[in-house]
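tool=predict chain=A
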Amino acid sequence: MDTYLAHWFESPFQGIGMFVPYLFYSYTWQETVGILVFLNIRGMMRHDKRTGWLVDGEHHLEHHRRPLCNYGEQWIDWICGTLASHPPVLHK
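tool=predict ok
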């Protein structure tokens, strides 16, 4: 359920990236449903240590280990100065 937890200010903007292509392309409702399913599955995979490596190299899982870095996509963190690329913290 971590996929759906966010700050109240962030939540409305999380899905905006899906709607930007609508400015340039038309999608059927079936394609829209497919995109939503894909994005939800991807979000869940980013929060699971068994599949995080497949989706983003565990970039987002590092955020859960160190909550002051790696919030979103690597390129967004790079722009905002929140990208950290140090070894993961090992929990006992």
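The helical segments are 11-14, 16-19, 29-46, 52-56, 59-65, 74-80. The radius of gyration is 15 Å.
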